[in-house]
Write a structure and sequence with these properties.
Order of helices and strands: EHEHEHEHHEHEHEEEEHEEHEHEHH
Structural class: alpha/beta
Helix content: 25-40%
Subcellular location: Mitochondrion matrix
Enzyme class: oxidoreductase
Catalytic activity: N(6)-[(R)-lipoyl]-L-lysyl-[protein] + 3-methyl-2-oxobutanoate + H(+) = N(6)-[(R)-S(8)-2-methylpropanoyldihydrolipoyl]-L-lysyl-[protein] + CO2
Largest sheet: 7 strands, mixed
Strand content: 15-25%
GO molecular function, one term: branched-chain 2-oxo acid dehydrogenase activity
Shape: globular
Radius of gyration: 20 Å
GO biological process, one term: response to nutrient
Length: 328
């Protein structure tokens, strides 16, 4: 048995970064306030342990952070860049989408920046409002050449982050900030990886397939229990884990079995990643569907402050969607 330790999500991220710095002498971690431990404490103690040349602060310039990361990765370093909030990744959008994602392709595989991993706190937090609660994964899901990953728990966070760091492509790793301190799990102290692009079936079921990622997985667990208790409906719950490239096979196999699909995410509904899953499943599983595919997502408005409880796709909205599908 591997030794494990009680960790919450931010501690499991720290543990993954610690493992990487210890085993890879080229690894560097950088971003705004990273040397001080970061606003969410994900890099606490790492500068003292590994030195200011390997864990360091950058100017407040996301374009510069990612641009520097690309250069470091091309030169052979394992570059781990932190964007302080996913909401502030947009100034770096050009660097990620036009440079990092295309670097290998445009050089005919002569050069690549596959050793670049970009971490960012993501999703709603209860009081984040316009600039601290966004879920921008769908923007990057349109861009071949990068991988986009979102964990649901401490064990997943460490294994998936280490998989991103080891992957030969640039990866964006979104960390659900509301989960940083939410739950504690026994996490292996030693490094381990969880395969990317593999969804995980968390609960087998026969009547409805529920697909989500990150924070929304915990909402869907409650919904599955409610559906079982109140309606006698058996739900199959799938954590997508990797947004790009996503695991179409696991989702489609499940829908063939259940005949119904509910997808839920916090991002706005129009052009959200649920739409991509929905259209793929419709193409692949049309004759197996017993009801229209349902999307329960955020509204097409900026993320509100005091109206956040009305905005987020809570268990009651998802439960209503299941009732509608079953009675279709």
């Amino acid at each position: 048995m591997r030794p494990t330790q009680k960790m919450n999500l931010f501690q499991s991220v720290t543990s993954a970064l610690d493992n990487t710095l210890a085993s890879d002498p080229t690894a560097v971690i950088f971003g705004e306030d990273v040397a001080f431990g970061g606003v969410f404490r994900c890099t606490v103690g790492l500068r003292d342990k590994y030195g200011k040349d390997r864990v360091f602060n950058t100017p407040l310039c996301e374009q510069g952070i990612v641009g520097f990361g690309i250069g470091a990765a091309v030169a052979g370093a394992t570059a781990i860049a932190e964007i302080q909030f996913a909401d502030y990744i947009y100034p770096a959008f050009d660097q990620i989408v036009n440079e990092a994602a295309k670097y290998r392709y445009r050089s005919g595989n002569l050069f690549d920046c596959g050793n670049l991993t970009i971490r960012a706190p993501w999703g709603c937090v209860g009081h984040g409002s316009l600039y601290h609660s966004q879920s921008p994964e769908a923007f990057f899901a349109h861009c071949p050449g990068i991988k986009v990953v979102i964990p649901r728990s401490p064990v997943q966070a460490k294994g998936l982050l280490l998989a991103c760091i080891a992957d030969q492509n640039p990866c964006i790793f979104f960390e659900p900030k509301i989960l940083y301190r939410a739950a504690v799990e026994q996490v292996p102290v030693e490094p381990y990886t969880i395969p990317l692009s593999q969804a995980e079936i968390l609960q087998e079921g026969s009547d409805v397939t529920l697909v989500a990622w990150g924070t929304q997985i915990h909402v869907m667990r409650e919904v599955a229990n409610m559906a079982q208790e109140k309606l006698g409906v058996s739900c199959e719950l799938i954590d997508l884990q990797t947004i790009l490239p996503w695991d179409t096979e696991t989702v489609c196999k499940s829908v063939v079995k259940t005949g119904r699909l509910l997808i839920s995410h916090e991002a706005p509904i129009t052009g959200g990643f649920a739409a991509e899953i929905s259209s793929t499943v419709q193409e692949e599983c049309f004759l197996n569907l017993e009801a229209p595919i349902s999307r329960v997502c955020g509204y097409d408005t900026p993320f509100p402050h005091i109206f956040e409880p009305f905005y987020i796709p809570d268990k009651w909205k998802c439960f209503e969607a299941i009732k509608k599908m079953i009675n279709y």
